[in-house]
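As a next step, the fold was encoded as tokens, giving this record:
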Amino acid sequence: MKTTWRSASLAAGTVAVLALTAACGSESGTSASSQNVGATAPAGGIAGVGSGYGAAGASTSPAPGGVGAGTGTGAQAGGAGGAGELAVSANGDLGKILTDGAGKTLYRFDADTAEPPKSNCEGDCATAWPPVSADDVSAGDGIDKSLLGEITRSDGSKQLTVGGWPAYYYAKDANAGDISGQGVGNKWFALTPEGKKAKAGGESDAALAGLSVRKDPNLGEIVVDKNGMTVYRFLKDKAWPKPVSNCNGACLQKWPVVAPVEANDTKGVQKKGLMSFTRGDGVKQQTVNCSPIYTFAGDKAPGDINGQGVGGTWYAVAPDGKLVGAPAQ
């Protein structure tokens, strides 16, 4: 009977380990409100512009100076006579986006504000991203004209706002329908007719699942939380045979845990190993492919990837749970 009991215990233990392995597996691979015309004060200077207004993936700093060449470029980018009658265009990747009368895409900048409406793109920034003139603009079909307004820039010119957000062209958009400015520096996005940020799959920034996938111009497809914030993994954590977080105490102030998410409240994220677990401190934390996930306190806006590669131990997460851009393990 004693031998039989030991055999049964070993068999039960083997089944338990196999169950955990099937569930988690081993680590592998890396992989606004509208403004009335003339109701706003002149826009401020370039403070707060930061990086991300130059070429895709580049990080550049604005040169000192006023709007200068930037303001005169807007009419040129959109065709003679300004933006004309705005239109709603259907884009295969982004859904409904706002274009001018010539079909040129209109963009918004995360460093700007909508309440109150203010542009923080001047100097070299305004050369790369010409402001859309508010002169001779009208609302076409499907556009709420009450969302259209204007701000007075520092040189006295009038810039169009949509839902409070200042509108721009992208100098590298050569043809009608081009969207090469989408996601540049993780700060520039095509405008929807409501003034929101257009996103892949046609979702606006107000309609994200608990966990979803965003296509970053530098990292490719990465997982984001319900607020659009980038999700990260910690190399010192463990996924097998069960999730273990090694980020505790002060670490959690910089890297807050992602709270549990229902499986049916995800989009594009691998379902295998999509689970939550109870940490050593009693807090429940979400995993992707059984690896604990976090956001980064240094990311201030959706699309930021400031946590990527921090300390050589923190990396964004691919839809299958693998590390993005990490050295081979």
Observations:
- The chain is about 15% helix and 20% strand.
- The chain has a mean pLDDT of 79.
- The two ends are 46 Å apart (CA to CA).
- The helical segments are 2-24, 69-78, 124-128, 251-254.
